[in-house]
Amino acid sequence: MNPLNNQTVLALMAHPDDAEFLCAGTLIRLADAGWQVHVATLAPGDCGTMTETPWAIAATRTEEARRAAAMIRAEYHCLDERDGLIVYDKPTLRKCIDLLRRVAPSLLLTHAVSDYMVDHEMTSLLARSASFIYGAPNASAFPLREGSGVPYLYYCDPVEGLDPLGRPVEPTTLVDVSDQLAKKTEMLACHASQREWLRAHHGTDEYLDAMHRWAAARGQRIGTAAAEGFVQHRGHPYPKDDLLDSI
Q1: Binning pLDDT at 50, 70 and 90, where does residue 207 land?
Q2: Burial zone of 204 (CB within 10 Å; 0-12 exposed, 13-18 middle, 19+ buried)
Q3: Which residues pair with 107 in a beta bridge?
Q4: SS3 per-residue string spanning 163-223
Q5: Please, which pLDDT band fits residue 4 given cuts at 50, 70 and 90?
Q6: CATH numbers and ranges of domains, the chain
Q7: 134 burial level (CB within 10 Å; 0-12, 13-18, 19+)
Q8: pLDDT tens for each residue of 65-82
Q9: Which of 4, 119, 171, 175 would bridge with 229, disulfide CB 3.0–4.6 Å?
Q10: What is the C-alpha to C-alpha distance for residues 26 and 12, in angstroms, rounded to an integer?
C-alpha cells in the first residue's frame, strides 16, 4: 500500500517534552495538513525533579504531555519505562512493536542515533527496530491494521545539533516552522515542571529561549525565521524519497 494513503505520524521519544522541543513544529504542520498525530514516550519523566517523588513527578509530566498533545489534537502514549533505564531488550521492544501495531504510522520521528543521553539513543534504536518489523503479521498479537508497513523514518536533531563528542550533525532535511513557532512554544511551555529541574541539574534556565535559538539557527540555513532539522533513514527497505521536504 502506498504509505501516503495512510497519513499517520508517530513521534516516539524518550521523555515528556522531547517531542515538543525537537519536532513539534513539524507535527503542527502535519496536523494542519490533516495528518493523525501520535506522540509517545518510553518513560514518564520520573527522574525529572529534585524535590518530588517519582510517582508525583511522573503524574505531573505525563499530564503536561497530554495537554501539549491535545493542542494539536494528538494522542499521547506512555510505555512506562523509567528515566535513565531505557534499554534495548525484548520486553521494551515488544512494547514499541505493539504501539506501532496499534497506531500503524506511515511516518515515524525519533531521536538522533547519537545523542547526549543514552535514553535517547536506546529510544532511537527501539524505534528503528520496531518500525522495521511491526507490519509483519507474526510480530504482534494486535491486529494488523490497513496501511501497516515500513514507514518513513527520520531522526530529529540532537540537542544543539551536536553528537556526544561535540561534532556537528548535518541534517538531510530542514522543515520551515516559522509559522508554527508560536504554537510550538506554547506546547513546550506546557512542561512547566521542567524549568526548576533543568536549572538545578543541567544548569539551564532558558528552556524556551534555547529552543528559539536553535530553531533560528536551523532556519538561517534555509533563509527562514525558524526550522527543525532531521536525518532521514534510507536503508533497505525504508522509503528513499524525502517526505518531510514535501509537507
Answers
A1: confident
A2: middle
A3: 9, 152
A4: CCCCCECCCCEEEECCCCHHHHHHHHHCCCCHHHHHHHHHCCCCHHHHHHHHHHHHHHCCC
A5: low
A6: 3-235 (3.40.50.10320)
A7: buried
A8: 999 999 999 999 999 999
A9: 171
A10: 14
Integer Cα distance of 56 and 88 in angstroms: 26
Do residues 17 and 65 make contact, with C-beta atoms less than 8 angstroms apart?
yes
Residues 212 and 53: beta-carbon distance below 8 Å: no
Question: C-alpha cell of 27?
Answer: 507535527
CA dihedral 146, 154, 75, 123 (to 10 degrees): 110
- The confidence score (pLDDT) of residue 200 equals 60
- The amino acid occupying position 77 is H
pTM for this prediction: 0.95
CB 162 within 8 A of CB 169: yes
C-alpha cell at 240: 528513499
Tens digit of each residue's pLDDT (9 = 90 or more) over 91-115? 999 999 999 999 999 999 999 999 9
